[in-house]
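Entry for the shared binder. Reason: the reviewer on the internal report wants the predicted structure included alongside the sequence.
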Amino acid sequence: MSDRAETGPVTPALSPAWPERAAWGTAGSLRAWQAAAMTKYFEEQPRDFLAVATPGAGKTTFALTVAAELLSRRIVDRVTIVAPTEHLKVQWAEAAQRAGIPIDPTYAAGKGRTSKDYLGIAVTYAGVAVNPLAMRIRTERFKTLVILDEVHHAGDALAWGEGVREAFDPATRRLALTGTPFRSDVNPIPFVTYAPGPDGIPRSAADYTYGYAQALADHVVRPVLFMAYSGEMQWRTRMGDEITARLGEPLTKDMHAQALRTALDPAGSWMPSVLEAADTRLTEVRRHMPDAGGLVIASDQESARAYAKILRGICGESPTVVLSDEKLSSKKISKFSESEDRWMVAVRMVSEGVDVPRLAVGVWATRTSTPLFFAQAVGRFVRARKRGETASVFLPSVPNLLGFASEMEVERDHVLGRKVNDDGDIFAAENDLLAQAQASEGASDDLEGTFEAVGSTASFDRVLYDGGEFGHSGEVHVGSEEEMDFLGIPGLLEPDQVRELLHSRQSERAARQKAAAPRREAEESVAALSTHEQLAVLRRELNGLVASWYHRTGQPHGVTHAALRKECGGPAAAVATAEQLHARIDTLRNWAVRKSS
């Protein structure tokens, strides 16, 4: 069937049985922001309209309601949906089908034909860039509404932006959507209006904006609890030096990057501890949300598989592992969304637009740390299904991530100010920003191939919520009563109830700590008098035994110390505890006994 056979417009069936697909004005179930945006759209009748709405707010419903109304008024007779990924094409087609607008998600530019049963097509930005002329011919042939989903992707590469502009310049109407903050570059996004900001730099101007703060007040999205975890990290540099640093302490860019890589190393103790805490939190949430699921966002496939293995040992279930943007991966995500399985582990793919409403607990286990990616990722957990649901995201205590968490309610526009010309890398702008402003892994120390994680430990740091920080002063051990004060927060609470409970638990713990302070200070003062001497004696004893072992076996002192640390655990002898030193002394004596035997 050729495109010529499609020319007769087909009016969609707009049954009020699905209120969101009913003709505008015939159903009253649209959310307040959707109704307000619809009113503005049809009052102004613009050719181009940019709607910025927080993830989970219902951009898809808004866009399809606009499409249904335009079709019913015969203002347009075809719909073209442009999405960032293949998976989202299918997701849009399924949503449109429920709205009575049949969409072909298999269409490819240049195909030249679809069944007359379809009222439109769904394509990707990359697909448009392959053959924009073919898409332009189709757009000219029909009165077309173009829905540009996550429109900031049209600025990812010059070829994408130029392709979108060429293909859809003849469109009757263009509706652009985004739910995440735009980035800063000089590639203008097609069909978006720019106006000078206070500093004179052009910024995108949205026709309608619905931010996270508004959505939270309207109970449209879930409140998010950010569970931040710190801990001691140890790694070896290319010079063979071992460095010990605490996650979250003031460090150089390189050291921040190294500390984060150490924390995310599956072979260390930090990730297993945080995954166990997250699983504990998921169990608590499932008391009120029985089908609640968790998502671990990993940096690479190898780490993802390792995290899945750790989770399997923790909860006894094999997580769903999603490694790439392929058809099989889309099926895995859909199957997980419809199941009651506990965990999914994914590499980047579930960062934007993918709809798994039951996701309620997340673990940030990726080194990617930009405002755009953060907002995309957190957006996977905020979609509310009923009032009172909460979301929890576990984060490493690194400054940039904590900053993003505390600025969840900040709205950002697209700023024109920096050149991006890497057509092959759609994340070029974000990676460039990361290299400039955050912990760059390609920095002056030349980390690649020279970095080696030695060990890590995790400790609970704090909870970030509604711009505030809640926690207990000092180090809080994983699995402790103090940690459970926050992991055990009920999974079904209103935003103001969450705030009150956090304040209450922090105040109660502070009162107990204050009451116990005099006794604790007395005990610590006594211990302080003897600890220094005790540790000095133990270190001398251990060094003496290591020296004896050298004379007996010829094994260098450093090798022996490393072997003892590997077997007994813990940091270098200079910062080891008395218990750890005792364990190494006993181990070395056992070696000596076995050798003598």
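Summary line for the report: The longest helix spans residues 495-553.
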